[in-house]
Design brief:
CATH architecture of the largest domain: Sandwich
Radius of gyration: 33 Å
InterPro entries: ConA-like_dom_sf, LDL_receptor-like_sf, LDLR_class-A_CS, LDrepeatLR_classA_rpt, MAM_dom, MAM_domain-containing
Mean pLDDT: 87
Keywords: Disulfide bond, Repeat
Largest sheet: 6 strands, antiparallel
Distance between the termini: 89 Å
Pfam families: Ldl_recept_a, MAM
Protein name: MALR1 protein
Number of helices: 1
Helix content: under 10%
Low-confidence stretches: 331-338, 404-411
Number of domains: 4
Length: about 600
């Protein structure tokens, strides 16, 4: 069936009506193929018309030219107990020609369950009038699976909520960032969120949704709290709910269980990313030896097409608890006592070796050469080689983050920052833009350093820096491995910061593929400086920057030897000895450029 638009009249409407249908089963799906091509071909929508309801329910829409191709539409109808029909409306503009067509209309799994001669066993329920045999987990779940309503008879209303008359006995958390919204019909933003509820399958029914548009920010959280429940046996309490996660920038929905009121509890289940335009049923089996509560947490994605819906939440085999959950006291950590220095005669411009009290020049601290017998002059410095195993940062610091954490009014949880990670801790969807294995061990258990782009916003930067390095030698260079994979990778820079300036030594931006890549940055002779890795966040969370196996190579400064230079060495003007192979190689090996003099 097609419409050929070749008239100049504006806003013509073509309407195609289906025959009437009496009812559908709870798993009913409608699919068809459509074609919508032309510069001003206009919009089309499929409406559900239910007997007794004046307001039509929009099931599907296309807004614009979608190219010269056939596309498939899949629409979840679910249980519709009353007679209904469909109306396919096509609105065409009057400026250019366009073609719209529909083909291969199919209904799947739309029949009610057939009657059964017997229905034995604890895991089955025999419907009263239809005599269908259904799974016992479908009983009292706010869905008429039997077709006669008998599976929803005699249910405890305190254990289920379809949000038609409010939140029931669920509550909004007061310690989250914002609240779930009760609504009916489509959400305010196109191409995200449900068009209808799950209970009635029409625009008349209510559901909860999480609004991802402004003023909401990435990773804002909305938490819904269940009533309290008595301890349950091994999986005898079952939580059922339906969720809707449709939109390019949908982020995450999580379910937690807690037995202490001032904690988040532990994760039972989560779903991440776009799950298409459909309501999805989820069943969770809950065990607890203590009274408990369920938390449903929605997290905002990186844009306004990230709405999440909730509907038809029910419990089976659970009993309500009349008391309250205990709290755990919060304690403050103690302060550390600074170590006392040994007896010494050092000046303020000298460093005191911790074991011996020996004095060395301050320029010898953090120069990649231990001058104290106990190597204390190199403690508190960046390590020469760092693989981040054993969750060790090797002296690398995030000064801005540490400054923020000192101010308790600032929440740093959602700050774009560097942190340790490993493949074993990733969500399944994170593998597309974060390393699954580290570079050191090539396993999921190995650790690396990464800037987590699921925090922050576009253009935010995260710096991690060395402590001040006193002095380096002429051939000093930093070697590291980087991983930059994902559709919205930002950039990685290596900077050198001294007291009065910061210079860029190396930069790389955009996706570099799903592998670790080696990088080498020449430092040479420098004094009193810091090396900084700066990650810049891309437009979304689909692009983490990671580094591993950072090595400072040949960075210890030159030593003036008491012995004369050998025949294989060259004596610099400042009395340093360097290999003759290093002469005239465009590198200031002597630190005074005498090895690069044209008079050699």
């Amino acid at each position: 069936m097609f419409i050929l638009k070749n008239s100049s009249n504006i806003s013509q409407i073509a309407r195609l009506r289906s025959p009437k249908f009496r009812q559908t089963g709870s798993n009913c799906i409608l699919s068809f193929w459509y074609y919508n091509y032309g510069q001003s071909v206009g919009a089309a929508e499929l409406q559900l018309l239910v007997d007794g309801l004046k307001q039509p329910t929009v099931l599907w829409r296309t807004y614009y030219n979608e190219g010269s191709q056939w596309l498939k539409a899949v629409i979840q109808l679910g249980r519709l107990p009353h007679p209904f029909q469909f109306s396919l409306d096509k609105i065409s503009l009057g400026f250019y020609e366009g073609v719209s067509a529909i083909d291969d209309i199919r209904f799947e799994s739309c029949a009610l369950p057939p009657p059964a001669l017997s229905c034995e066993g604890p895991n089955h329920f025999w419907c009263r009038d239809s005599k269908a045999c259904i799974d016992s987990l479908l009983v009292c779940d706010l869905v008429d699976d039997c077709g006669d309503g008998s599976d929803e008879d005699s249910c405890n209303p305190d254990l289920q909520c379809n949000f038609e008359n409010g939140l029931c006995n669920w509550e909004q958390d007061v310690e989250d960032d914002f609240d779930w919204i009760r609504i009916r019909g489509p959400t305010p933003t196109v191409n995200t969120g449900p068009l209808k509820d799950h209970t009635t399958g029409t625009a008349r029914g209510h559901y909860l949704y999480l609004e991802s548009s402004e003023p909401r920010q990435f990773r804002d959280k909305a938490v819904l709290l269940s009533p309290l429940f008595n301890p349950s046996g091994n999986g005898t309490c079952v939580f059922r709910f339906h969720y809707h996660m449709f939109g390019k920038e949908v982020y995450k929905l999580s379910v937690f269980q807690r037995t202490v009121s001032n904690t988040r509890g532990w994760l039972l289940w989560y779903k991440f990313g776009n799950q298409e335009n459909r309501w999805i049923r989820q069943t969770l089996f809950i065990s607890s030896s203590k009274p408990f509560q369920i938390l449903v947490k929605g997290t905002v994605g990186d844009g306004f097409t990230g709405d999440i819906g909730l509907d038809d939440m029910s419990f089976l085999g659970c009993t309500l608890y009349n008391g309250s959950l205990p709290t755990i006291p919060t304690t403050t950590s103690g302060t550390s006592v600074p170590a006392t220095l040994p007896m010494n005669n050092c000046t303020e411009k000298e460093f005191v070796c911790r074991a011996s009290g020996h004095c060395i020049q301050m320029i010898q601290k953090c120069d990649f050469r231990p001058d104290c017998s106990d190597k204390s002059d190199e403690s508190g410095c960046v390590m020469e080689v760092c693989d981040f195993e054993d969750k060790d940062l090797c002296g690398w610091q995030q000064p801005a983050l540490e400054q923020m954490s000192g101010n308790y009014s600032i929440h740093i949880t959602n700050t774009f920052k560097w942190q340790l990670g490993r493949g074993a801790n990733l969500y399944p969807e994170q593998e597309q833009h974060c390393p699954l294995t580290d570079h050191t061990t090539c396993t999921e258990e190995g650790w690396y350093l990464f800037a987590d782009s699921s925090n922050g916003e576009f253009g935010h930067t995260a710096d991690i820096a060395t402590p001040v390095i006193s002095l380096t030698g002429p051939r000093c260079k930093i070697i590291f491995w980087n991983h930059m994979n994902g559709s919205t990778i930002g950039s990685l820079e290596v900077l050198c910061k001294s007291s009065n300036s910061t210079s860029k030594l190396w930069t790389q931006s955009g996706s570099q593929g799903p592998q670790w890549n080696r990088a080498e940055v020449f430092l040479g002779i420098r004094s009193n400086f810091q090396v900084i890795f700066r990650a810049k966040r891309g437009v979304s969370y689909m692009g983490d920057v990671a580094v591993d196996d950072i090595t400072f190579e040949d960075c210890s400064p030159l030593l003036i030897s008491d012995k004369p230079c050998t025949s294989e060495e060259f004596m610099c003007a400042n009395k340093y000895c360097i290999p003759k192979n290093n002469l005239c190689d465009f590198v200031n090996d002597c630190a005074d450029n005498s090895d690069e003099s044209p008079n050699i």
